[in-house]
Structures are given as structure tokens and as C-alpha cells.
Write a structure and sequence with these properties.
Elements (H helix, E strand, L loop, with lengths): L3 H6 L8 H15 L14 H13 L3 E3 L1 H10 L3 E4 L3 H6 L6 E2 L3 E3 L5 H12 L6 E3 L3 H8 L6 E5 L19 H11 L5 E5 L2 H7 L7 H30 L1
Parallel strand pairs: 1-7, 2-3, 2-6, 6-7
Antiparallel strand pairs: 4-5
Helix pairs in contact: 3-8
Length: about 240
């Protein structure tokens, strides 16, 4: 579950109807297939599915932006930066100011599709399998201030859209799949993905923020605001006499 304070930081909360919305999203996802997402009837991780997704992302003008460009966007305070990695990874360190909306979550429920997915992971020795977060697009939508706001996604690696010598068919990553999901759900008109992901951000020596540090900063801001309020309250009280 996403930490409540992250949504408060963005000035919005998900609202009391999140549970009912998530149930509807889960039902829709299950109709889409066991992975929780399909691309033209194909698995998103299949060669055909990825090629369809890659071409759709290019046609949708999804851009790959450098960590430096992300830094500029953060400094201007105009973009929404979304970390799509698991919550534990986000807490360990993230781009300062980024909001955490995991694209994948642990498998929930025991429908036939869910059981099949669990078995598939178990065959590869993975006990805690994952599935697409059914409310990902809606959670991001709640954080977007307006349709024209730039939404920058990042995962651990970033990915490649345009073929090159090293990746002749591009390189699919979590953030690119997440970008496709947002496109399909009509969330945001300006979606970008950070090149190299969080790994490149760290390797470039850029500042990182940990969840504990972020909470402390929020606490200091609230404390400063309270002191300001008390001071003005004292001024008005004195004026009354």
C-alpha cells in the first residue's frame, strides 16, 4: 500500500472511493489476461507485444529524457516525477521530490488466473510473484495537476525505444510498460521516461533522497508553519488589547 504522506506531499489524496475503484480495476485487468495487461491480445513481454507497444509509444510522442533534463524539470517544479519501482526500493533512495506509484505489486487473490501466475513464478523459483498494479493509472492521475503537466517515469534501468546497435529491437523495461499503460488510460498528454533509470541517476552522482529524510523535511516544514501561525496569533492577540 502506498504511504499516505506521499499523496499529501503532492497536495492530493486518493479519496475514500479508492477501494471500490481498485476492485473495478482488478476485474478489468483479469479480463485482460493473467499478467494484468495485454497489448493487442499479446503478452506485453512477448516479442510481438513489445514491438506493438514500442511503436505505440513512439507514435504517442513518449520521450526518453536524460537525468539532467529530469533535474531541470525538478528544479522548475513543473513536472510530476513518478518512481514506478517497489516501495522498498523507493524508501532506500529516490530522485528528490519523486512520488512512488509502483507499477507492479505482489499477486493478490486466488482466481484461476492468479493461481496460474503464481505457479508460473514458482517454476522459476520465485515465491513472491508480481502482477500489474490495477490502480496504477488512476493513482498517477490523482497526482497530475493538469492534462498538460509533464509526467516523467523512471524505474531501475530506463529502457530503449529507438533501435540502436546494442538494442536492435529496443529494450523493454518497467517504466516503458508503465508509460504505455498511462497512454492507454488517457492519463497525461506529455509522458517521458528517464534514460538509464535510477541507476544512471545515481551513477551520475546526483542527489538522492531517502524516505526517512523526506519525512523529516515534511516534519520540519509543518513545525515551521506552526511556529509562524503561533507568532501571528500572538500579534493579533496583542492588537486586540
Amino acid at each position: 500500500m502506498l504511504a499516505q504522506q506521499r499523496y499529501h506531499q503532492a497536495g492530493r489524496c486518493l479519496g475514500s472511493n479508492r477501494r471500490s475503484r481498485t476492485v473495478l480495476c482488478v476485474q478489468a485487468r483479469e479480463r485482460s489476461g493473467p499478467s494484468g495487461l495485454h497489448v493487442g491480445g499479446q503478452s506485453p513481454t512477448s516479442p510481438k507485444g513489445w514491438e506493438t507497444m514500442r511503436l505505440a509509444l513512439i507514435a504517442g510522442n513518449v520521450k526518453m529524457v536524460s537525468p539532467q533534463e529530469v533535474q531541470f524539470a525538478c528544479d522548475r517544479g513543473q513536472a510530476l516525477v513518478v518512481d514506478v519501482r517497489p516501495e522498498a526500493d523507493y524508501d532506500a533512495g529516490h530522485v528528490p521530490g519523486a512520488q512512488n506509484v509502483p507499477f507492479y505489486q505482489p499477486i493478490t487473490g486466488w482466481s484461476a488466473m492468479k493461481v496460474a501466475r503464481r505457479v508460473g513464478y514458482a517454476m522459476f523459483g520465485v515465491i513472491n510473484g508480481t502482477e500489474v498494479n490495477p490502480s496504477f493509472a488512476q493513482d498517477v492521475k490523482q497526482l497530475v495537476q493538469d492534462a498538460e503537466q509533464q509526467v516523467i517515469l523512471y524505474c531501475s534501468q530506463g529502457g530503449v525505444l529507438e533501435p540502436n546497435d546494442n538494442y536492435r529491437k529496443g529494450w523493454q523495461t518497467r517504466s516503458l510498460i508503465a508509460a504505455y499503460d498511462l497512454m492507454q488510460e488517457g492519463v497525461g498528454n506529455s509522458i517521458s521516461v528517464m534514460k538509464g533509470g535510477y541507476t544512471e541517476w545515481v551513477n551520475a552522482g546526483r542527489c538522492v533522497q531517502q524516505q526517512q529524510e523526506q519525512q523529516q523535511q515534511q516534519g520540519h516544514a509543518m513545525e515551521a508553519g506552526m511556529h509562524f501561525f503561533i507568532a501571528w496569533q500572538g500579534v493579533f492577540s496583542a492588537a486586540a488589547y
